[in-house]
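Morning, I've got a small favour to ask if you have a moment. Here's the protein in full, and shout if anything looks odd to you:
***
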Amino acid sequence: MNEHFQPRLPPGQQLAAPNKWPLIGERGPRPSSDPWTLTISGLVDLPTTFSLDQLCKLPQTERVLDIHCVTRWSQYDMRFSGVLLSDLLNSVGVSTEARFISFVSRSTRNHSSSLDLNDALSFETLIALDFNGQPLSVEHGGPIRNIVPGRYFYKSVKWLEAIELLSIDRLGFWEAESGYHNHADPWQEERYMAPAIDRRLAAELIAKRDFSGLDLRSIDCSLRELPGLNARGSALRDANFRDANLANSDFSEANLSNAHFQGANLQGAKFVGTDLEGANMSGANLCGADLTGAFLTGTTFGESGKLPQIDSTTIIPENILAPLTPDQLQLVKDLLAGFA
C-alpha cells in the first residue's frame, strides 16, 4: 500500500444523501439594514472594504470540493465559485508580521474562526459567492462565505463580513466556546481540544449522578454505573458513555454532539429535544428510550454489524429521521419496521 495514500472519506465520517447539503447551526445572519460588505483589516498595507458588487466583479474561481462536517457527515463534489483569498490579500498587501487570519461572521453570536495564514493560502481558501452556479443561499452562509478545503467545515464561516490579519492567533467562537479543535484536520479526527474538566471534578460529578446544566465536554463515563443520571440541559459534546449503564437517564435538551454511546444501556432514557448530531448509538440498548424532537444529523445507529436494540416501546418519530445519512436511515427504518 502507498504510505502516502489518503482516503477520500476521513475516519468517522458518513456520506450524506446525494445532492444533499445538511443545515447545521443558525439559519440566518444577524439582522441588519446595512448593505453587505467585506472588510479586510489588521496587518495589511491597505485596509479595504469591498462591496458585494465589487467582489462579484473581481476574477472568479470555481472549485469542486469535498466538505466534511465535524458532526460526521461529508459530501463530495460541492461546486463553489468566488474570489480566491490569495487574490484579495494580494490586492491589499499583507505585512510580514502577519501569521494568522481570522474570518468574522455577521451572526447573532459573532461567530469567527482563525487559521494559520500559510495554511489558509496553501489550502486555496475561497471567498465563495455562488454554489452550483447560483448565489449562495442565506441558510448556507450567503451572500459571502469562506470555504476552507481540507479542514472540518466549522472553519468555513457563514455570512462572512470581515477578515483580519493577526500576528497572534485568536480562537474563534466554536474553538473558544465549544472546544472544537483549532487545527481541525478531519483525517486526524481533530474534532475537540482537551476535556473541559479535570478527573477529580469529573469523579465528584459522576458520584452525584447530576450533570444538569453543566458543560462537561469530553467527560469519560465509559463502563460506569449511572442509572437515572440527570443530564438535562447539559453540554456533553464528545462525552464517552461507551458500555455505561444509563437506564432511565434524562438527557433532554442536552447537547450530545459526537457523544459515544456504543454498547451503552439506554433503556428508558429520555433524549427529548436533544442534540445528537454525530453521536454514536451502535450496539446500545434503546428499548423504551424516547428520542422525540432529537436532532440526528450524522448520528450513527449501527457500524461494524453492531446494531442497537429497539423494541415497540422505543420512541423514534419518523419526522426526525430525515437528517440521517442514507445507510443509517435505512437501518433505523428496518429496525422500526419490525414493530410496526
Summary: The CA atoms of residues 287 and 310 lie 5 Å apart. The mean pLDDT is 94.
